[in-house]
Amino acid sequence: MKIIAVIPARYEASRFPAKLMQMLGEKTVITTTYQNVVETGLFDEVFVATDSEIIFDEIVQNGGKAVMTGQHETGSDRIAEAVQNIDCDIVINVQGDEPFLKLEPLQQLIEVFNNDDNQEISLASLKIKLTEKEEIENPNNVKVITDNNGFALYFSRSVIPFHREISYHVDYFKHIGVYAFRKHALIQFSKLEMKPLEISEKIECIRYLEYGMKIKLIETNFIGVGIDTPEDLEKARKLI
């Protein structure tokens, strides 16, 4: 299989505009993410997909590869446009605001497709256990519930499952926005109309579920720093 990574990158993020061009040490957030993905050595090629000339120039001037796209509602739609004419089998979507992603979870996602002999899985992604009440209730944390085989049942910004039976312990999981797609499933996804659940929750993975596609979730212990707010940026700078 030919495996590539694509990093969707918007300049005008709604919660933190221009966050990808903020400095982390001596590099911008987007350049840090790009170079960290390249350094994993897992991919035949790595691209940034963006509708911003500022971000495009930032990547190219630092020796990277970038693709200009139109404007899109979701990162997956942006990636689908970017890979239309790129020869590949598996596309890994790494979020531009997750600069500290490590090797192991990316390897785990690739392994899902190596073991999928019947090619039933359209998409693989990551989840991590949540233990703090504040984190569980935070709508910025997308929660996911899965069946016994690790396939997604639903994603939500609400608390799922609802813990009605308090005498019974239940685990909560946060969805980490790193995706591995089969290219043909990604292209199909981009042609499908948004349905009410995706529109309501603003979670693009729900589109796959609404059209009956299979999403495999892999549990990870990786704790990164997703940069959604100026406070997150300060955490990332301390980590640097």
TrEMBL record:
GO terms for molecular function: 3-deoxy-manno-octulosonate cytidylyltransferase activity. SUPFAM superfamilies: Nucleotide-diphospho-sugar transferases. The keyword Transferase applies. Keywords: Lipopolysaccharide biosynthesis, Nucleotidyltransferase, Transferase. GO terms for cellular component: cytosol. It comes from the Bacteria. The keyword Plastid does not apply. It holds the Pfam family CTP_transf_3. One of its GO terms (biological process) is lipopolysaccharide biosynthetic process. NCBIfam families: kdsB (TIGR00466), PRK05450.1-5 (NF003952), PRK13368.1 (NF009905). This is 3-deoxy-manno-octulosonate cytidylyltransferase.
